[in-house]
Every structure is written in C-alpha cells, then in structure tokens.
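Question (not urgent): is this output format expected?
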Amino acid sequence: MKPPCEVMVRRFLTPVRALVAHRLREEGLEQQKIATYVGVTQASVSNYLAQSKVTLEEKLSAFGINREEADAMAAELARAVRQSDSLATEVLYTYWRSVAASGRACEVHRADVGGLTNCDMCLRIMAENPIGGEKAEVIRKIREAIQIIETSPDFGQMIPEVYSNIAYCTKDAKRTEDVAAIPGRIVRFRGRAKAFAQPEFGSSGYLSRLLLALRRNNPWVRSVLNTKLDTGYLHALEAFVNSVPITLDSYTTAEELMQKLESITLSPPIAVLVDPGSAGYEANIYLVGEDPISMTSVAVSASTLRRIR
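Got this back:
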C-alpha cells in the first residue's frame, strides 16, 4: 500500500508547520509557545526557524503552491492554531484536500513511491462529490455570494476573530447535511475577505445548527452570514433592512443559544441578529436571509456605508 497521506506528512506538513512557526515568531511568540501551538517539540521549532521562508516555499511549490498561496495558508493557520487544535486541523485538511483533489500532489506521490503510473485515486476520492438538482443550485449561489464578498474592498474589516462563513440550505432542510457552507470559513487576507475552499454540504456544524434552529419558527430563512459585532456596521445595516435588529439574551452554552433561536420570530426578506457573546463565545452579528446573494449584497453595501459615514 502506498497511500498519499504519507506524502502529506513527509513532504507537505513539515514545510507548512515551519511556515506557521515563522509566522507566529513574527507575531512575537516564543519558541516554546510556538511548539505548543504547532504540535511539535521546541527543538523542531528551532530547526524550522533556522530554515529560510524562501526554502520552505520552494518545497511547497512542488505541490503547485505559489509564494502568495503559501503565505496566505500560513497566515490562516497561524490564526487557527490560536483558536483551537480542531479548527487548525480542519483548515489544514481543507488545504490538503484541495491540493490532492486538483492532482497537484500526484507527481510528488509518483516520484516518491513509484509504480503509480495510472493512479488517479485522489482525483476520484478527494474531489467534491458530484451533485445535481437543488443541491447544485445551493452550491452555485454560495459561490456567487462569495464572489460578492471577495470583491468588496471593505467587507474584510467585518470578519471576526472566529472568521466568517455563509450557510445556505435546501428548501426542506432538516439536518446539518442539508446545509452547505465554506470549509475552513472565510478569512481576512491582505485586508479583504477570502475563502480558500469551495462550499460543501455538512461542512459547518455550528452555523448549520444555528440556521436550522431559526427555521423552526421562520421557515422562510435559508441563509445566514456571521460578521464582527461593530456599532458603526450595525447602524449601517439598519439602512438596508426593514426590521429592527434583534439583540439576543445572554447564554452559557451553544445548546442554550439554539433553544433561544427556535422561539424568535423574524421578518423577511433580511433580518439582523445581534449576539453580544458569552463566556467562550465571541460577539457576532448574524445576517439572515432567504438567499445568500441578496444577503451578502446587503452585507457588502453596509460595510461600504460604514466606511464613508
């Protein structure tokens, strides 16, 4: 057996970890703290930092990753490791899956182990499962919504520390598997919003649960976008929606929040929820809509209005 995961560990993971270590060092962290975040020994961190970033980026170029992509990946992972190990692992595997599914790891794999002349396993297994019908339309609309956000010069400033995401569900959604979102979420890169993965069904447990909870009393709700809680942005949003923003009560667990959301009544086509946050939960603004395109258009317009006011 010659699984591609061996190539991932030997040839991909090491330079990625090293670039994250460089990034965290540039942010002022000591080697022991970096080691804890990255999941290696302090000696390994010392070895990583002894290598130039150019050398590390050249190693990743074997996978078709250019310097800008490597820098963006390191920046996103550096933020993710500060949040949690599970989020960092999710982001890491989102990148690896993208590399493997595109076929960019194939030449490295063949060169390392040999005997894989006709292998196309990653192209078949790692690639997004083909879908059609309503689910295909859900994916298409999220992609269009992402384009609206990514082209905005202002929306990037509205991304919270936990990142943003867009969730959109099928018409009769009942389970998280009926909700699509961006794996790894939407991050701020060079001042702008950037999604480094394509939308998938079942990829955002928390936002999917939130959306489904809202649908209990508001079946018209099919999409949700989370942003940073910013007073100027909240006031700007009020200029684009017909209803007054609803401020949520405090809560101690995610389950308690979901119960509160199930009893809320919202007015279409777009509503605004203000989550002041709680212990372990960052404050957020949730834009809720019938579809992600009109919802993100309002989000972007409000970010522009916030800047010019």
